[in-house]
Amino acid sequence: MRYRELGRSGLRVSEIGYGAWGIGESSWVGATEDESVQALNRAVDLGVNLIDTARGYGESERIVGRVVRERTGDEVLVATKVPPRNRTWPAPDGVDPDDAFPGEHIRTSLETSLRASGLDHFDVLQFHVWNDEWIGRGDWLETVADLKQEGKIRLFGVSVNDHQPETALALVRSGAVDTVQVIYNVFDQAPADAFLPACEEHGVGVIVRVALDEGGLTGRITAGTTFPEGDWRNRYFRGDRPAEVERRVAAIVADLGIAPDEIAENALRFVLSSPAVSTVIPGMRSVRNVERNTAVSDGRTLTPDQLAVLGKHRWQRNFYS
User: Fold this and answer.
1) How far is CA 217 from the centre of its chain?
2) pTM score > 0.90 for this model?
3) How far apart are CA 25 and CA 252, in angstroms?
4) If you average pLDDT over residues 50-68, what whole number do you get?
5) In sequence order, what DSSP letters do the residues of 247-314 get, joined into one string?
6) pLDDT over 70 percentage in the chain
7) What is the CA radius of gyration of the chain?
8) Is 186 in contact with 217 (CB distance < 8 Å)?
9) Mean pLDDT of all residues in 257-261
10) Does residue 159 contact residue 126 with C-beta atoms inside 8 Å?
11) Are 38 and 30 in contact (CB under 8 A)?
């Protein structure tokens, strides 16, 4: 495993982190706690030192906390998220910050997360949505400073609205944030235009989520793909979306001249090709996926020609809506 600086924080994080939404036994159907614990432990064994969870991920904080507390000899960083009080995703314009992230709500959510996880602090506390209209308004920044002073959090971050990196660009430039979590993948390359360069310039750590497009960039989504009842991916990949994903992935495979089962590896390498990226956090619910994804952190990078090929496969859309 290779490690990178997490912005200006002084912390070093594994290139491959652990996205823990899928192990929460809520939106993703099929996870079991035993398998999740095995996967988490295997990830730490292989050098993963950043796990990303959230208050809204079902049992995820509890399961992550259980594993981290048991790994007494390993320094594992844990990031969690505060949901907006108004429960509105993404954060629209015109919302007062005191409706989304008032100080009392931030503190209450954090205390709940600490109890659920059994941890005495979180390394990164992130707002689960963000809007640049909130800069200079409300008491969220003062609360974050107090929580740092109290030792309950080390860093402050935000999870950028889905496919809207421009909604956090001013925050990055303000110096008020330590980390950002953003969607960046072969399809959604928008962050590379202005957002990632700004993060690099201002020393903000970048945590990349959805690098595999919720499974779309694994080669396993085809026209006939279905998911268990209650699994949120039925909505994400509804209608003719699976067929369109299959066509586009096949075109990438052909243009790169790779085997179909190599698409996920190349998708992760694409993300890690950006020097602004600190870590990428694919969701991993099995030991097999952990082993395959962590193997990508081997120092091999895509060639300029390969990156140029992938640059032509930019596909701007929002399957969350």
Assistant:
1) 15
2) yes
3) 32
4) 96
5) HHHHHHHHHHT--GGGHHHHHHHHHHTSTT--EE--B--SHHHHHHHHTT-SS----HHHHHHHHTT-
6) 100
7) 19
8) yes
9) 96
10) yes
11) no
